[in-house]
Design the sequence.
């Protein structure tokens, strides 16, 4: 992914008119250290960055900056941008990993433009054509650089989101065997039709795998249920019944009970018990378990 | 191919060996209704554990079959319906009212022992 990205960035850098770029670089290079220091200052001033500031080794970062300087000088000189593009890609990924906000790093890096511009004027002020060319070179350079960093930043963020979504999906449908023949399915959070389908599948598969004859579905943690999802629950209960399993639904909040009756959902087929405790007790009764307190 | 119907005392057991065609379903219904009358029968078990797919005709046949057998006396038990088949049956409206269901043949035996 990042390979093709840095290749594309390198091609974009190479497409910048050489004369413009060289004029810009000539003025920029003399001030490189000063400009980098200003940008670093801006970055370190960010509250998100402050948490990492004490982890940064000054010698290391100076060495990195020197290496980056060399890579850029070489790229301008030879027109081969691969290494520099790779550096920008990893820079964007780093910002993504550190959860620095887009606005913050964009602003910090844009400082470079502001600092360099007066030097361009100073160097080429006497020749209008050169000045325009240098400014165009600078703009083209930063457009590509920012786009490269921004793209890898967003890709990194998206990758994080994907991982989190998978984690949530897995966490959201646990089916727990409580006793021989008894399953508990605690449902927490908003249930949409996609998730309802997933819950159904998870429950029916678990019933088959564990040979459970009673399943308790607890929806205490579900804030609301619409008629579509309610119907899905009813279908699940009926499907489980066909498989030979009784489903007990527990934890219907007052709001859900009211909504379901108002919507006209037929709940007579459902076996409902007020809370999870009552549901488990009912399930134990159906399975023939008797729980007693020792010494009571 | 005829579906074998086994008798174990007062219990008839039908285990499907694969998905059936329409004609086979009709023949199974006739055969089972015949066998129910030949000797006193308390239970008839239909084991669907190898069935992957049921079309609407098969669903309707099963609903009819279970009702017809019940009319002749025995208690009907359907065993081993798979998750996907169960959900398809619900969506086709084949809910098997008044029929006992079991996870598998073992569970069906347990239900009969307790009845």
Sequence:
């Amino acid at each position: 992914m990042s390979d093709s990205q840095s290749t594309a960035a390198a091609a974009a850098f190479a497409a910048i008119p050489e004369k413009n770029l060289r004029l810009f670089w000539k003025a920029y290079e003399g001030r490189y250290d000063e400009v980098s220091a200003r940008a670093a200052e801006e970055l370190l001033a960010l509250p998100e960055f402050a948490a990492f500031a004490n982890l940064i080794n000054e010698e290391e970062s100076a060495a990195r900056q020197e290496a980056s300087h060399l890579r850029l000088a070489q790229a301008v000189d030879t027109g081969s941008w691969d290494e520099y593009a790779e550096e920008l890609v990893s820079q964007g990924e780093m910002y993504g990993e550190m959860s620095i906000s887009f606005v913050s790093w964009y602003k910090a890096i844009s400082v470079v433009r502001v600092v360099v511009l007066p030097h361009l004027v100073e160097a080429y002020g006497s020749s209008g054509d050169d000045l325009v060319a240098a400014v165009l070179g600078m703009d083209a350079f930063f457009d590509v650089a920012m786009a490269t960093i921004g793209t890898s930043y967003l890709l990194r963020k998206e990758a994080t989101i994907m991982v989190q979504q998978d984690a949530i999906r897995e966490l959201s449908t646990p089916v727990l065997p409580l006793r021989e023949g008894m399953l508990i399915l605690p449902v927490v959070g908003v249930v949409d039709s996609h998730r309802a389908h997933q819950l159904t599948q998870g429950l029916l598969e678990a019933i088959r795998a564990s040979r459970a004859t009673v399943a308790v579905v607890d929806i205490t943690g579900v804030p609301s249920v619409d008629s579509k999802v309610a119907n899905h629950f009813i279908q699940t209960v009926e499907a489980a019944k066909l498989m030979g399993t009784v489903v007990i639904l527990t934890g219907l909040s007052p709001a859900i009970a009211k909504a379901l009756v108002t919507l006209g959902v037929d709940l007579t087929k459902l076996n409902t018990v007020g809370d999870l405790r009552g549901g488990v007790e009912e399930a134990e009764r159906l399975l023939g378990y008797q729980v007693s307190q020792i010494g009571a | 191919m005829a579906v074998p119907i086994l008798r174990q005392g007062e219990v008839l057991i039908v285990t499907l060996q694969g998905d059936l065609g329409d004609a086979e379903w009709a023949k199974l219904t006739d055969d089972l209704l015949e066998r129910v009358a030949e000797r006193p029968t308390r239970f008839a078990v239909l084991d669907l554990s190898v069935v992957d797919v049921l079309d609407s005709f098969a669903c309707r046949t099963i609903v009819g079959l279970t009702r017809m057998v019940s009319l002749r006396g025995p208690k009907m038990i359907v065993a081993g319906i798979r998750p996907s088949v169960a959900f398809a049956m619900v969506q086709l409206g084949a809910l098997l009212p008044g029929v006992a269901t079991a996870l598998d043949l073992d569970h069906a035996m347990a239900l009969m022992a307790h009845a």
